[in-house]
Amino acid sequence: MILATLLLQGVATVATASQPQTSATAAAVASAPAAARPAPRNAWNNPSPPYPTRSIEEGEAGTVRLKMHISAEGTVQAVALDSSSGYPRLDQAAMTAARTWRFIPAKRGGKAIPYIFIIPIEFSLKPAKS
Description:
Belongs to the TonB family. It holds the Pfam family TonB_C. The chain is mostly beta strands. The strands form two sheets. It has a five-stranded antiparallel beta sheet, with helices on one face. The protein has a two-stranded antiparallel ribbon with strand order 5-6. The protein contains two helices and seven strands.
């Protein structure tokens, strides 16, 4: 079974190349620095990125870290590569999927605010643990 894993605040959701699952959720903390900030809550069932067929054939695996800019409405305003998996196809698959995601906005003083966080997305060719 081929896997693409979306890691949110230490909670992993696994997706097979043929059957994506929904991602896990975690609380957003707006006052922490971006790199230390937990990933925002995800009530929109954002899908894990598809594992590129060519990457599976080539045995490519690794973790992509994306810097996500989220609006006060919970939409993705920008996605940037924080660190590469070492494989452009995996990096691009992660970035393409992340651009379509939605999040529950972070709040400060009860008011929704824009925020930035880093999210790791792991592509693994190891069998899923049952």
